[in-house]
Amino acid sequence: xxxxxxxxxxxxxxxxxxxxxxxxxxxxxxxxxxxxxxxxxxxxxxxxxxxxxxxxxxxxxxxxxxxxxxxxxxxxxxxxxxxxxxxxxxxxxxxxxxxxxxxxxxxxxxxxxxxxxxxxxxxxxxxxxxxxxxxxxxxxxxxxxxxxxxxxxxxxxxxxxxxxxxxxxxxxxxxxxxxxxxxxxxxxxxxxxxxxxxxxxxxxxxxxxxxxxxxxxxxxxxxxxxxxxxxxxxxxxxxxxxxxxxxxxxxxxxxxxxxxxxxxxxxxxxxxxxxxxxxxxxxxxxxxxxxxxxxxxxxxxxxxxxxxxxxxxxxxxxxxxxxxxxxxxxxxxxxxxxxxxxxxxxxxxxxxxxxxxxxxxxxxxxxxxxxxxxxxxxxxxxxxxxxxxxxxxxxxxxxxxxxxxxxxxxxxxxxxxxxxxxxxxxxxxxxxxxxxxxxxxxxxxxxxxx
Length: 450
What we know:
Elements: H1 10-62, E1 83-86, E2 97-98, H2 100-112, E3 119-129, E4 138-147, E5 150-159, H3 164-204, H4 219-264, H5 270-295, E6 304-306, H6 308-321, E7 326-327, E8 338-340, H7 342-360, E9 363-370, E10 373-380, H8 390-393, H9 414-424, E11 428-433, E12 440-447
Helix pairs in contact: 1-2, 1-3, 3-4, 4-5, 7-9
């Protein structure tokens, strides 16, 4: 399973990008604050240590270092010296931790005041006190510098390392997220809502028959919606012009065909007359199919709520009344009502039934419901279709049989018409060979409105 970290939606991408930017900014802020806090700590503790070292040297020069500040050799080291000048290195307490940064800082400060030290060591002991000159808890630090042949050891204070800064930054980050991400989320949602409406309108009404969308949201989004409304209006105008042109073409072609049909009746040779009439009828039927393909999905029939069981039952009775071997539908369970144009659905199903009768000799009508869809199935017991050619056969003028003889299937427009009509109703045409027996299932699949 592939883990997708980057969201797909505009709102998710914007919120994630801003959240990541805030996190990086807070991380940089935390690094700078920690560095500044460390420099301030070293400046306070190191400055006090340098001042006491200078004072200890001056007192040692005058011989005025207090006796209690010179513990005897081997005496207990529990009491840390405030100021000690000795000729041997200072031995820190057992639990003292070396503080290299403090030692480097003190060495640099001593060099600046003209007292270069041969070596400087610093330790932080574990005890914590609150000296009167500092606010809050502090750590005791011991600094020992070798100046000449003398070791000067002094005591200083460093502010305690607490979690106050981390807690402050955590609350600051949460506050920033609340104050920045929430407005950005609302703004992004307001910008994306018209885009979602636009997407639904394109999917629901691809032919441009619906009313224009309300231009709302930011100016860029309003411009997109306005361009879509203008484009859909142009598409609607072109479709209307196409329908008018097709109507004129159909009328202009049918009129001479009808006139020719009348004149053929005067032909005395019965065999020749029948062949001519069959050719004219074939041309008329082909013209009807071509116009049906061109006009599919653009019908002016009003949408209505209809009962699919009634539609399928009436279709079966219609074919049986003409003496055609069409079976079904049998007793059906209660079916959900559909919203659409039932005449277009009936026309698509007629094409599927005509195909089944032409290639298999019989047809069975079924209906199935599941997964939010309703399937009108036309089943036959014919030879089926090569699976590699199923996608090809829904194209106009594609046939499973190579000839153009209408007695063996017509001009190859039946499946194309059914496919176009199903898409015009928001559904699709599905064709598959039967797995349990010989034959084919052709289904018009329509969405069920919740």
